[in-house]
Amino acid sequence: MSPSANWSYPTAVRFGAGRISELVEACQAAGINKPLLVTDRGLASLPITTQALDLLEASGLGRAMFSEVDPNPNEKNLEAGVNVFKNGGHDGVIAFGGGSGLDLGKLVAFQAGQSRPVWDFEDIGDWWTRADADAIAPIIAVPTTAGTGSEVGRAGVLTNSVTHVKKIIFHPKLLPAVTICDPELTVGMPKIITVGTGMDAFAHCLEAYSSPFYHPMSQGIALEGMRLVKENLPLVVADGSNIAARAEMMSAAAMGAVAFQKGLGAIHALSHPIGAVYNTHHGMTNAVVMPPVLEMNRPAIEDRIARAAAYMGIAGGFDGFYEYVQKLRADLGVPDKLAGLGVGRDRIDEMTAMALEDPSAGGNPVTLTTENTKALFEACI
Ligand SMILES: NC(=O)c1ccc[n+]([C@@H]2O[C@H](COP(=O)([O-])OP(=O)(O)OC[C@H]3O[C@@H](n4cnc5c(N)ncnc54)[C@H](O)[C@@H]3O)[C@@H](O)[C@H]2O)c1
Ligand SMILES: [Fe+2]
Q1: pLDDT for res 8
Q2: Which strand ranges, in their side-by-side order, compose the sheet holding 92-97?
Q3: Of 186, 247, 259, 352, which is most buried with the most CB atoms under 10 A?
């Protein structure tokens, strides 16, 4: 039996297999009468998506979808989605998909009522207070991958299609009003996406756990999140229809996103520019850069990682943990180097500058400099 429960930590989460059937109730709870379902192109025609639309239509909530969403979605996708939202007279968004569909859907609900450009709401200082909070439409989130945790997050990642920079757009009301975590929706993920998204969840937990800021609650959540990935990611890769393990991975994903309020680090600081420049999969990119980042951070996190290793049942302290990560990557078929994702050496200087500017950089346990960041890129490529 896979678990089923209601949580409000921090979002109201309806967690359990088959609970997509509560989509209409979730709309009612969020006060949405004319939802726009936002997803990406790949999911648009899959049965999980058409079945969700069937539920809406059958209950009189209409059948409206926007799916012109790229992987690593950009401001053009957002503008098109906002137009569909406004022209259709919608009053809320069902953000449906992996991080791409979830983030773009959340941002449509956010941006539809704003008069300033979306880039004015980047996660810098108190820029979020520039937004008209009352004009943000309610959001229901329905993840179909188990990785980004965007379903319980207050941010959306948007790539600037002109500058190829990934920006984090932040507002407290980007937090969905209701989330439905139904592990059955993740069963059809291609194996490579199961691996990539699972490693994203692991990276969120690992970086949150390692970041030096004070946040003991996040620390505990991140630690258990890592353990859940260790126990369950190999199971879902071996058998994609293992619902109990899929459920645990969904929990780990949500836990990672809750935990990374504490901070991220160099894995994400590197991964964001690589994804923006080379359009690689976010989680897979994280998985590739993980060992060199661990190695660089070792002096600052050795004891802490040894404690995590002990909790996770890994012998050998930091070294054991490092070897575990290497073996996990190899077992899951993660390329050893970024060259395996098509990343060349031609733009290292540019990506180094972008990594240092990335908001995740500040959470790295070792201060990032041009020298050590460039060296990281060299080691990863
Ligand atoms: N908001 C956040 O806090 C946050 C955190 C981490 C990453 N992100 C962002 O999320 C994005 C990546 O999200 P992702 O890793 O979930 O991948 P994704 O949303 O880009 O999806 C990857 C592919 O998998 C397909 N897919 C998704 N679910 C499926 C299913 N159940 N069955 C079949 N196919 C399915 C999609 O159609 C797509 O082709 C990036 O843009 C990244 O920057 C956001
Ligand atoms: Fe991530």
Answers
A1: 66
A2: 5-8, 12-15, 178-181, 139-143, 92-97, 35-38, 65-66
A3: 259
